[in-house]
Amino acid sequence: MSAPTTEHLPLPAVAPGNSRHLTVLRFGRPGARPKAYVQASLHADEIPGMLVAHHLRAGLEAAAAAGRLRGEVVLVPFANPIGLTQHVLAEHLGRYALESASNFNRHFPDLAPTAAERLAGRLGDDPVANVATVRAALAEALAATTADDEVQALRRTLLGLALDADIVLDLHCDLEAVLHLYLGTPLWPDAADLAADLGAEATLLARVSGGEPFDEAVGGPWWALADAFPDHPIPAACLAATVELRGVADVSDTLAATDAAGILRFLTRRGVLTGDPGPLPELRADATPLEGVEMLRAPVAGVLVHHRAPGEWVDAGDPVATIVDPGAARLGTSRTELLAGTSGRVYGRVAGRFVRPGTVVSKIAGATALAGRAAGALLPD
Ligand SMILES: [Zn+2]
Q: Is residue 374 pLDDT above 80, yes or no?
């Protein structure tokens, strides 16, 4: 085994006697390429990623000991020490900062506009040279941002660790779900090997989801800048993905070891590690547009009865769930049926069994864009 270099990056103390830090594990020679960045549990109550990080660390230590590290791997095994402490009335609440209700995976700075200003006159005809120039401009743009509070400092620190990587994997999970990915549309089908190696059962594509999630903050500037400078070749040089590791309760050594092995196979396929990744597994599901996702919402309050499990296919019109009002005036009005509005795979569903109007009950990955699903507003808060 070959241990990584461990760093502790401090966050600003929120009160005297209270300070937190990020732990960063670094494998390989700093600056070696390709560079992969993996972080776990930015939404701090999404636990599967932290166990995958543990298994991934074991695999990376073994790879390092075997001399298989060609590139660099930066692993942040828990990306949100703030959210890890947020227990209220015995519940762990890790999606939003309690201080501000700010979603930890939104509001990352969009570096493209500042980088574009700095790139004027600096780009040429060589895409490889342009990648280096763009990376430098993005670093300058990040350096020009400020962080006024602990949450913003966390976002800024994470972005700084990932910004120059060739591959960025942000490990999340859904409530009850099959493994699925969020990717920038320009990354498909190049990233189909990631979906295949991880066994993703849905891959959702958007050029701009909206809300500035982490993966788009690192990946999105590449296609924004390519649009801004059409006369200069700028490739999508950062394969950034949000990896949804099934549901919140899908935490086991077996699953985590499988997922870590999938990531290591992908990193080998991409040359971060040397060796033979083996044949590419068959893709389980083609990518579909995030604009085609039906977020099936509860129209009324009541007890939720799911009829379709994550991974199942539904056709438009199929019953997906029933909401039961046990106190309805008449028995005949006590059951509200929810029907699929589109055909596709159910890839996630709510875990709680009591819902209120507006609760997203099920998510269906349809193949065609739906009315009311507009680019820039595709993710729930
Ligand atoms: Zn999440």
A: no
